[in-house]
Design brief:
With 353 residues, the protein is of the alpha+beta class. It is 33% helix and 29% strand. The longest helix has 18 residues, at 99-116.
């Protein structure tokens, strides 16, 4: 739908990314677009959770798109709705060709949140006006890729190269796939990993939606490392344009000495590079997770800051938000029967996305 003209030559358009191909194409042509800006991600969220994403676009008088951001409302019991860009996203920036378009669309998103009665809207990544106080800050890591370095990214630390060779010598083998059975093998390992961390897993229906919308069309792959018929580690990797993304990981801790995680990452990096990716995004890292941060840096990653901002609709005030990591009562959840933990994940995972 079209809104009245705003801010000089710019006007707001709100599109449905699941159906409006032209709007999505224009948005993803902007600098910085990634997998979370795509129609496939919006369709996955809708199929798994019923979320309805609104794609906000700032258009000039000629109809050219100068800025874009997807905004998805999440309704929680008793507390009403909030909106984020996007659920399950490590980062999903407001894309803009210049500061005027950025500021216009940021204000338009806040106005939309106010008109729809959403408590606040959270921008996960760049695009907030200068001076906006961050709600939460994370580390981000990008590993440079080169298809000529098939064994391991060249910039990785010597210890990483040794770990990859150790896994190969130990007889660990890597498989790639996107079939339902293959993804179920990963999801079983992932669910056990989440229980070990004391957090509910994302439900199977979400992974099935990702398989249909992203993996089967060739926009990602599941990677599993196994030995003697036992799955040791795995990951779900997605690609958009020239960027790969390490989205979900899992492993069996009793087999860490075989270094299957390193072999999964190395082979996945090569898979992404051979499909034209020049960087592999390792996702967000909480500021206090120093062990995970060191692991990601050991791959030769460039570190950057990922900023989330949260604006209250009622008065436009920037809010603070606690890092989502560690929000669950981990000791209790570790003791729950796996079926009960999976049931909790199906209920609560989308509410806290």
């Amino acid at each position: 739908m079209k809104a009245p003209a705003h801010a000089g030559a710019l006007r707001l358009r709100v599109a449905d990314p699941r159906r409006d191909h032209d709007a999505v194409q224009a948005a993803t042509a902007l600098p910085g677009a990634g997998i979370f800006h795509t129609a496939a991600w919006a369709r996955s969220l809708h199929a798994a959770y019923g979320f309805r994403t609104h794609l906000l676009l700032a258009e000039d008088a000629a109809g050219a798109v100068a800025a874009a951001v997807p905004v998805t409302p999440i309704r929680a019991w008793l507390r009403g709705a909030r909106a984020v860009s996007q659920p399950m996203a490590d980062q999903c920036a407001l894309l803009a060709r210049d500061s005027a378009a950025r500021d216009f669309l940021h204000s338009a998103a806040l106005a939309l949140a106010r008109s729809r009665g959403w408590r606040h809207w959270e921008l996960r990544g760049a695009g907030a006006p200068p001076g906006t106080s961050p709600a939460t800050i994370y580390h981000g890591h990008l590993v440079p890729l080169d298809p000529a370095n098939s064994d391991c990214p060249a910039a990785a630390a010597p210890s990483v190269h040794r770990a990859v060779r150790q896994a190969v010598r130990a007889g660990v083998e890597v498989e790639f796939g996107e079939s339902e059975n293959f993804l179920r093998r990963f999801h079983a390992l992932y669910a056990r990993t989440r229980q070990r961390h004391g957090a509910p897993p994302a439900p199977w229906r979400f992974f099935e939606a990702l398989r249909r919308e992203l993996l089967v069309p060739g926009h990602g792959v599941v990677v599993l490392a196994a030995r003697d018929g036992e799955d040791l580690a795995g990951g779900v990797f997605l690609i958009s344009g020239r960027n790969g993304l390490y989205k979900y990981g899992a492993s069996e801790p009793s087999r860490h000495h075989l270094r299957p995680n390193h072999l999964v990452m190395a082979r996945a990096a090569d898979w992404c590079a051979r499909r034209g990716c020049t960087a592999l995004d390792l996702g967000r890292t909480s500021l206090g997770a120093e062990g995970l941060r060191r692991y990601k840096l050991s791959w030769g990653a460039t570190e950057r800051v990922i900023t989330y901002t949260r604006i209250r609709s009622a008065d436009g005030r920037a809010l603070l938000a606690r890092d989502r990591a560690g929000r669950w009562p981990a000791p209790l959840l570790r003791r729950l029967p796996p079926p009960l933990l999976r049931a909790l994940g199906a209920i609560f995972h989308p509410l806290l996305a």
